[in-house]
Write a structure and sequence with these properties.
Elements (H helix, E strand, L loop, with lengths): L1 H23 L4 H4 L2 H18 L8 H24 L3 H14 L5
Helix pairs in contact: 3-4, 3-5, 4-5
Keywords: Signal
Protein name: Secreted protein
């Protein structure tokens, strides 16, 4: 019974020590590494630039011009977010959502 009383009295102190250790753990450096997102964003940016370099043909010129305008807006968003130092992974997620809204290639 004496052991149970000792453990019962010690629980708050043990809980505090465990909480302090949990807070003192260094963050995983892999979670802060955005180089993969930066590389992916570079690839997407280059791909979008090459997409708008293609000349729009007459049969679908209005649709092509609209799509190119939307791509230019996405490129501007990437540029502005990079100038502000925004998180590259957040930027690639936003760009991905915007790309899904573009009309299919035709």
């Amino acid at each position: 019974m004496h052991l149970l009383k000792t453990i019962h009295r010690s629980l708050p102190a043990l809980a505090g020590m465990l909480a302090a250790q949990a807070l003192a753990v260094a963050p995983d450096p892999g979670l802060a590494d955005t180089s993969g997102c930066t590389a992916m964003l570079d690839i997407v940016q280059e791909s979008l630039r090459s997409e708008i370099e293609v000349v729009c043909n007459d049969p679908n010129k209005p649709g092509c011009d609209t799509k190119n305008g939307q791509i230019r807006v996405i490129l501007d968003i990437i540029s502005h977010r990079r100038q502000r130092g925004a998180d590259e992974c957040d930027t690639i997620a936003q760009v991905n959502r915007l790309l899904r809204m573009l009309p299919p290639r035709g």
